[in-house]
Write a structure and sequence with these properties.
Layout lengths: L3 E2 L14 E5 L3 H12 L3 E5 L3 H10 L15 E4 L2 H5 L4 E4 L6 H9 L8 E3 L12 H8 L5 E5 L4 H5 L4 E6 L14 H8 L5 E6 L2 H23 L4 H21 L10 H10 L6 H10 L4 H5 L7 H15 L7
Parallel strand pairs: 2-3, 2-5, 3-4, 5-6, 6-7, 8-9
Antiparallel strand pairs: 1-9, 7-8
Helix pairs in contact: 4-5, 8-9, 8-10, 8-11, 8-13, 9-10
Bound molecules: 1,4-dihydronicotinamide adenine dinucleotide and 1,3-dihydroxyacetonephosphate.
1,4-dihydronicotinamide adenine dinucleotide (NAI) binds next to helix 1 and helix 4.
EC number: 1.1.1.94
Keywords: Cytoplasm, Lipid biosynthesis, Lipid metabolism, NAD, NADP, Nucleotide-binding, Oxidoreductase, Phospholipid biosynthesis, Phospholipid metabolism
Subcellular location: Cytoplasm
Length: about 325
Amino acid sequence: MKDQVVSGAPSSFPAHPYRKAAVIGAGSWGTALAVTMARAGCAVSIYGRDPEVIAEMNTKSTTERFLPGVSLPGNLTGVTDMAQALEGAEAVLIVVPSRSVREVSRQVAEHVPAGIPIAVCAKGIEPDTGLLMTQVAEQELNGHPIGCLSGPTFALETALGHPTAATAAFPFSYGDRLKPHDSPAVRLAVSLSTESFRVYVSDDLVGVEIGGAVKNIIAIACGLMTGAGFAENTRAALITRGLDEMKALAEALGGRRETVTGLSGIGDLALTCSSATSRNMALGQQLGEGLSRAQCFEGKPVVVEGELNAISVTDLARSLKVAMPI
Ligand SMILES: NC(=O)C1=CN([C@@H]2O[C@H](COP(=O)(O)OP(=O)(O)OC[C@H]3O[C@@H](n4cnc5c(N)ncnc54)[C@H](O)[C@@H]3O)[C@@H](O)[C@H]2O)C=CC1
Ligand SMILES: O=C(CO)COP(=O)(O)O
């Protein structure tokens, strides 16, 4: 099944939006999602480790380091206590870098009652195990519907209200008794729907997650080529061949090739490979210009998932005998 449309205002769609949600991770994407959900009418608690970031959210309604120029809605509350953030939450979004998803899932498991849906919003493959982020969460969180949210979504643009679309994927069959409009994918889609943010639903977690994990690596390659002085022909070739690699890996893992032609595949690949707003593309570009890795990160510890995941994706592809030359 391709991405399915959940369109229209939340009130016109026959699904119940979540009234209270918790976002775990108060960086740029976690906060952008929290802002979007709060604007859609949900009371959101966002958990962050840094007391200064959380204090700024609560006292000034801003987070200048992560989303400069964005005013946070009043129904969004920052907390530094995870149990407090999760109390009463009807849905949980885990929005930390891929390397922290296992640890955070384990912590979340201590505080959330069974049955509460968990959406993992990190993009990556776990090193050593080769597991998708939702599979990592599944190992740590028993008895929860687990899905993901992914797509071409720069955090700041999303929070500034630029028209943006993403895909929510959960197994539709979870619990057997669920009607489609009660599925966590649909409820999450509705809970995130605003005038500027539109969410499509899918049940192909593998297809969606592989797109998100692999596009970061292709974006580094595009950056490398740009930094080295090559231009549009080279980028188009990398995007097109990169898409083919994504499809092959998704299929080898049981996902659908057509999912990769959706927002979380070609959509995110096109976005991330076209703009130095992308941290992955920017890193590649600097390396291509001849900077050392240490120089690229000097004074700014940023999350560059493609760098962390180039090895885990390559290992996974090799173990499945999927050719991924880029
Ligand atoms: N920034 C963006 O435009 C988008 C990012 N993503 C994905 O979202 C994930 C997070 O990225 P960003 O928010 O951009 O990174 P970020 O660097 O802006 O923020 C990461 C946050 O996670 C927190 N964190 C890290 N480890 C933690 C732990 N163990 N416990 C609690 N908090 C922890 C950090 O303190 C920081 O606040 C990545 O996988 C990224 O690929 C996905 C779509 C868009
Ligand atoms: O995933 C993203 C946009 O969809 C963000 O990309 P970067 O991590 O490369 O900035």
